[in-house]
Amino acid sequence: MNWKMQNSRWRILVMYGLLGAIALLTLFPLLWLISTALKSPTENIFQSPPQLLPLQPTVDNFFKVWNALPFAQYLYNSTLVAVLTVGLNLLFCALAAYPLARLSFPGRDWIFIAIVSTIMIPFQIVMIPLYILTVQLGLRNTYLGMIFPSLASAFGIFLLRQAFMSVPKEIEEAARMDGSSELGLWWHIMLPAIKPALVTLAIFVFIGAWSDFLWPLIVIQDENLYTLPLGVAKLAGTFSLDWRLVAAGSVIAIAPVLILFLILQRYIVETDIGSGVKG
After folding, report:
1. CB burial class (10 A; 0-12, 13-18, 19+) of residue 74?
2. CA–CA separation, 180 and 186 (whole Å)
3. Where would you tag: which of 16, 40, 141, 189 has the fewest CB atoms within 10 A of its CB?
4. How confident is the model over 168-218, as pLDDT tens digits?
5. Cβ(153)–Cβ(93) under 8 Å?
6. Which residues have CB under 8 Å from 66's CB, separation 6+?
7. Helices vs. strands in the chain: H and E counts, helices first
8. How many CB atoms lie within 10 A of CB 13?
């Protein structure tokens, strides 16, 4: 018995050690970025072997970056675009996924297959047609122009459809017997039941919208509408690639995403929505 217990403990130690090594390897780029942002101008950021802990840590790089460029405006633009993108994407994806999951109509499965198939199409293929359509709609140099390609996504429809399909039919039938309309059933019953899937999709959409560089670069020419990725790119040119300042700007850009994830990660859990349903 003692041998089995010791063997089990060693397995647990090895497993946690392996997981810790993987976590450290994954977090190393982020730690290196923060370390570079905190290093003073007198430190050599390219020394070998590399020095992860700053010898003379300073936050002056963050203040210099914040004052050199209108980072407050960039932060506002990114926040507005990301929040609107998340809200509209959740709305349209949920409206599209619900009938594909819970309603019966001719061609439903084929429509779903066609939607999911678009995931395999690279964005670069549809980029030019999207840009032409955006210009024709008068959305160039506007917030809506940056949001336009992300109003709905095939991945979001797929994710929410699978979540809707997991809701027990007994809940839906009970709501119909109580006289609930189709829209009321979708809003009051179905959406609360798939809250973890909605939060998961919101995080993915927010990260994608927040970090998007290519599409805003194409559709935005007014620097007052720049998002943080465009601002960080401009920052690199402003300071002739002073990596301490670029790293400081990058930390400012990714901090809201990390904060959002830490706040919402507790909601990304699978809930037993059928626990109250008895056979």
Report:
1. buried
2. 9
3. 16
4. 888 888 888 888 888 889 999 999 999 989 999 999 999 999 999 999 999
5. yes
6. 72, 252
7. 14, 0
8. 10
Cβ-based neighbours of 132, under 8 Å, separated by 6 or more: none
Question: In which band, very low, low, confident or very high, does the pLDDT at 4 lie, cut at 50, 70 and 90?
Answer: low
Tally the residues of the chain: 279
Q: Is 205 exposed, middle or buried (0-12, 13-18, 19+ CB in 10 A)?
A: buried
Q: Are 196 and 154 in contact (CB under 8 A)?
A: no
Enter the tokens of residue 33. 């970025």
DSSP for 6-59, please give it.
Answer: HHHHHHHHHHHHHHHHHHHHHHHHHHHHHHHHH--TTS-TT-SS---S-SS--S
Please name which of 242, 255, 249 lies closest in space to residue 63, comparing C-alpha atoms.
249
- Integer Cα distance of 193 and 199 in angstroms: 12
Closest CA to 34 of 252, 229, 258, 259: 252
Q: Is the pLDDT of residue 45 over 50?
A: yes
The DSSP secondary-structure symbol of 190 reads I
Question: Considering only CA atoms, which of 161, 160, 184 is closest in space to residue 172?
Answer: 184
Distance CA 123, CA 50 (A): 38
Structure tokens at 13: 């130690």
* Residue bearing tokens 């960039």: 74
- Tokens representing 120 are 């395999």
